[in-house]
Amino acid sequence: MSLTLPSLGTENQSPYQVESRREILALLKGFRDKSQLISLMINNGNEAFITSVLDIDDSNNTVIIDSAPGNEANQRIVEASSVFFDGLLDRISIQFSSSKLQRTQFEGRPALQMPVPTSVIRLQRRENYRINTPVSTPVKCLIPIETELGKQNQLFSLVDISCGGIAILDDRNLVNLAIGTSYELCQIDVPGIGVIDLSLQIRNSQELTLLNGKTTRRIGCAFLNLSNRTLTAVQRYIMKLERERNAKMTGI
C-alpha cells in the first residue's frame, strides 16, 4: 500500500516504507509510551485534529486513539473514506492511514478505534531534522504583518525548528498563507542564545483542532538567505534543545 500524505516539514526528507508488523507495533508503542501527539487529518488534509495513541491490542489487531472534541467531528472522522496520521517520534516523522475508524470507549471516556496499519512511512532526514520547542515556555517569533495601519510586529509561538526553517502557530489568522509569501525583518528570541534576525518564506499550512476544542493554524516557514552567523546561532539552539531533551530522558 502506498501512502501520500501532506508534507508538514520544512527540511529535505527521504521516505522509507515500513511493512514489518513488529516494527509498526514498536512505532505505535513508542507514540503511546512517550505520550507523543499525532495529527489526524481527513478530507485530504483540509481538516485536522490532534490525537494520541492510548492503547494497542496486538491480539485483536486494534489501536485505540484519543477522540476529537465534539460528536460532529468524531462522526466526520468515522465516516471519512481515508484518515491520515502524522506524528514526530525521536525526530522522525511517522505517517500512516486508515479507513475503518470506529467509536469506542477507553477507561470510561470516548475514544476511536482502528486496525493496526499494515504500512507506515518513516521520513528519514537527509540534511536537517526538526526538533520540538518547549511547550511550557514557548519560544516567540516576531513577524512584521501588513495591516490597514501599516506594518505591525506580531508574535507567534514556535512549534519546532530545524536548520532549514520553523513551524509556528497562528491563532489569530494573521499570516498570509499563499505559498512563497516572504516576510523580512523577522526575529526569534532564543533563550540562552539571544535575538536571531532572519527572513521567512511560507511553505505550507494546516488547520488544527486542539484537544481543548480550540482551532489554530500550523504554518511551515523556510529560512531565506540565512547568513553563516545566523545559521550558527540556530544550530547552537538546536544543540541546546537536544542536550535538554537527552538530559530529561536520562534523568540527569
From TrEMBL:
Sorted UniProt keywords: Bacterial flagellum, c-di-GMP, Cell projection, Cilium, Flagellum, Nucleotide-binding
Function: Acts as a flagellar brake, regulating swimming and swarming in a bis-(3'-5') cyclic diguanylic acid (c-di-GMP)-dependent manner. Binds 1 c-di-GMP dimer per subunit. Increasing levels of c-di-GMP lead to decreased motility.
Domain of life per record: Bacteria
Domain Type III secretion system flagellar brake protein YcgR PilZN residues, every copy: 16-122
Primary location recorded for the protein, binned into one broad class: other
Similarity comment: Belongs to the YcgR family.
The protein, known as: Flagellar brake protein YcgR
